[in-house]
């Protein structure tokens, strides 16, 4: 069976959601429909909660999310007052780690609050973040990013963690539903925003 999917091709917005719905219903026109979307999703990157996830639920589209630990931020590895070592990977995605960006400063603040919440719940921050990523009913599954066997073993153990409503409410207070603390972490921006020619009349017609 042939199945098609998209990856990081949508974000909140009516135009994108109309296109997603159209792709889901392609089989009604004799075409192969798209079966799943693969967006980033974590406590820090919640933009898809606004309408990507609800639309996927409405049309039966699978959602296989990635980066549930936000490139290591949700392990507690990066803390306020401690420099971030910019290795080759972090240099390649410097927008995720540049502490001069307000969004990354917001992540530092949120890490402190989330770490305290995880301690109260008797679990690690990593397990809190992974359990959160699987709680939304629109999420089909989560791609883990473990680099070592030790990390994989620890992350797989998070499958046994269940977050109650009180903890989820506390998370919502720290990072509001639908919010992305550092907008660059969504890894997608519509061409209508990034291509200046689409936002400006030709100079001769202004």
The fraction of residues in strands falls at 5-15%
Distance between the terminal alpha carbons, to the nearest Å? 52 Å
**How would you describe the shape?**
globular
Structural class: alpha/beta
Helix content: 25-40%
What do these coordinates show?
This protein is α/β, with parallel strands linked by helices and 206 residues long. It has eight helices and four strands, in the order E-H-E-H-E-H-H-H-E-H-H-H. Strands 1-2-3-4 form a four-stranded parallel beta sheet, with helices on one face. The longest helix is centred in the middle third of the chain and has 20 residues, at 102-121. The termini are far apart. The relative contact order is 0.16. The mean pLDDT is 86.
Task: Give a short overview.
The protein has eight helices and four strands, in the order βαβαβαααβααα. The protein has helices spanning 14-24, 52-59, 88-92, 102-121, 125-133, 149-157, 165-174, 191-194, and strands spanning 4-7, 34-38, 62-65, 141-142.
Task: For the structure shown, list the relevant keywords.
alpha/beta, 4 strands, 206 residues, 7% strand, 4-stranded parallel beta sheet, globular
How do the strands and helices of this protein lay out in sequence?
Blueprint: E1 4-7, H1 14-24, E2 34-38, H2 52-59, E3 62-65, H3 88-92, H4 102-121, H5 125-133, E4 141-142, H6 149-157, H7 165-174, H8 191-194
Parallel strand pairs: 1-2, 2-3, 3-4
Helix pairs in contact: 1-2, 4-7
């Amino acid at each position: 069976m042939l199945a098609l999917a998209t990856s990081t091709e949508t974000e909140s917005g009516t135009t994108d959601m109309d296109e997603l719905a159209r792709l889901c219903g392609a089989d009604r026109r004799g075409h192969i429909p798209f079966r799943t979307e693969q967006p980033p999703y974590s406590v820090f990157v919640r933009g898809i909660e606004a309408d990507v996830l609800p639309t996927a639920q409405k049309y039966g589209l699978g959602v296989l999310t990635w980066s549930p630990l936000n490139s290591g931020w949700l392990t507690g590895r990066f803390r306020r007052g401690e420099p971030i070592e910019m290795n080759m990977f972090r240099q390649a995605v410097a927008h995720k780690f540049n502490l001069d960006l307000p969004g990354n400063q917001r992540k530092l603040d949120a890490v402190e609050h989330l770490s305290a919440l995880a301690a109260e719940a008797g679990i690690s921050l990593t397990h809190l973040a992974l359990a959160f990523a699987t709680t939304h009913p629109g999420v089909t599954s989560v791609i883990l990013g473990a680099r070592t066997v030790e990390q994989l073993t620890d992350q797989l153990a998070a499958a046994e963690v269940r977050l109650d409503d009180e903890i989820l409410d506390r998370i919502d207070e720290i990072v509001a539903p639908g919010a992305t603390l550092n907008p660059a972490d969504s890894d997608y921006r519509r061409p209508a925003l990034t291509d200046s020619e689409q936002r400006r009349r030709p100079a001769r017609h202004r």
